[in-house]
Each structure stands twice: as structure tokens, then as C-alpha cells.
Design goal:
Elements: E1 8-17, E2 20-30, E3 34-38, H1 45-52, E4 60-65, E5 68-69, H2 75-81, E6 83-86, H3 98-103, H4 106-109, H5 116-122, H6 124-128, H7 139-151, E7 157-161, H8 169-184, E8 188-192, H9 196-202, E9 205-210, E10 213-219, H10 227-234
Parallel strand pairs: 3-8, 3-9, 6-7, 7-8
Antiparallel strand pairs: 1-2, 1-4, 4-5, 9-10
The protein binds adenosine-5'-triphosphate (ATP).
Amino acid sequence: MTANDAVLDVRDLRAGYGSSVVLDGLSLRMGVESVAVLGRNGMGKTTLCDTLVGFLAASGGEVRLAGRRVDGLAPEAVANAGIAYVPQGRRLFPSLTVDEHLAMLARRARGKRWTPDAVYELFPRLAQRRHHGGAALSGGEQQMLAVGRALLLNTPLVVMDEPSEGLAPTIVDVLVDVVHQLVAEGVAVLVVEQNLRAAVRLADRQLVMVSGRIEAEFTGAELVDRPELQHRYLGVGTSPAPAGITAGNKREDGSDHDTA
Ligand SMILES: Nc1ncnc2c1ncn2[C@@H]1O[C@H](COP(=O)(O)OP(=O)(O)OP(=O)(O)O)[C@@H](O)[C@H]1O
């Protein structure tokens, strides 16, 4: 991939909070593909997402989307430039229904690939719950809505922060299918993941973040069979991990684990 055909090209990105440096010269480049960023708790994965989408100002470096600088733009301008965000915790409005969430973006989605109807077709479960408020949805339904809302922006890049967190395996399957479908349709997907098994299924390349930089890159299921690398990069124990391998000290089956 050359600099010209990169969808996302991040160079020497620096960001943090006050005097605390979190992103310390992070570089990554991706084309139309799905890429996962893994790392222990506190390594700066959410900070990376927030900086890419303009929630947090970079203190140095560059972020280019299809060659165009987007660092320094406000979140809305970044979304308009072409990066949609599915934030950790989904950030939905508890008092708005599913329909109302999608209606907010319906006008700008008109005539494009992803409209509210297309989102309902992708997630039939969401269509059944269209008149329910955000607070009445299960964790899986909330994640579908958060993804659907991002799709309505019809951007060339979607950034997802820990999309599989707390989801039942069947919902993770749905998420994996959606990400593959997006890539097949020409949309790049950058996913931050704590869960190695989910990361391997969601993305062809896994980048490991250590101390605010990308320290290593793996492809396919390389990391799954290498406990010593998991221990080194993700902080998981050296004994064989159970069904789901989760970086740091987070639980695989989070408290909002659901079967919806
Ligand atoms: N709003 C904030 N103000 C100050 N420090 C923060 C803030 N948000 C995060 N940090 C610090 O920045 C560092 C990176 O946090 P970040 O949430 O980006 O890591 P992470 O890799 O996403 O971890 P996790 O998986 O636990 O969410 C941590 O040391 C964290 O305490």
C-alpha cells in the first residue's frame, strides 16, 4: 500500500491529557480492510479512537483520510470528512427510540447506501424494536443501534471502540459478518479490541499497542497460538486461556453480557 491509496494514514500521532502523554508517536496505515488494535488496559486505545475522530486534540503528528488532513478538525467536521465512530459504551440517548436515533441522520443518508431501512434490513432485530427507547434495549441491540447510526454517515472509514465488549457469542457473530460485509463493499474498519479471539475474527491484521505506539503486527490467528506473545503484549497469563482470551484484566463475559 502506498501513501496515496491508504484510506487512513496516521503519522507520529501525539496526544494525552494535560501533561500526561498517552499517544507517543503512533503511526499506522490501512487501506480498505479491517484492522484491529489490541493492547493491555490503559495503553491508549480509546485515546487513539478519540483522537482520530476529533474528540481529543492531537498535540503532534498527522491524521490523513484518503490523503486529506483531518487532525485539528472538530468531531462533526471529521465525520463529514469521512470517519464514523462507534464509541465504547455506545453513547445512545436513553429517552429516544431506535427509530428516533436513526431518523436524526436519515436526511443526510437519503439516496446513499446506508439508510434507516438498510440498517433495519441488516439488523432485523432492531427493526422489531424500532419503537423501544435506548434504555430498554439489550446490550446487543444497543451495539447494533450504535453501529447502524455510524453506518448512516456513509463514510469510507468506521472506527469501533471495543464493539464486542459484553456481547454474547451470537451477537459477536453478527458483528463479524457486518464488518466483513462493510470491507467487501469498500469501507475500511478500524476496531479496537480487548478480546483477542474477537479481534482475530474481525480483522485480518492485528496491531499491538504498547505505551502509546504500535509495537507489533500480526496476521490471521498468529497470536492465538502464541501464549508467550499474548503474555508479552496483552498481559494475559502464560497458561492456556479459556474460550475467550481477553487482554489485561477485563472479564470476557462482561456484566451486560446478553443473548439478544
Ligand atoms: N479523560 C482522561 N483524563 C486523564 N487521563 C485519562 C483520561 N482518559 C484516559 N486517561 C488515561 O490515559 C491512559 C490511556 O487510557 P485509554 O482509555 O486510552 O486506554 P485503553 O487502552 O483504551 O484502556 P482500556 O482498555 O482500559 O479502556 C490511561 O492511563 C488512562 O488513565
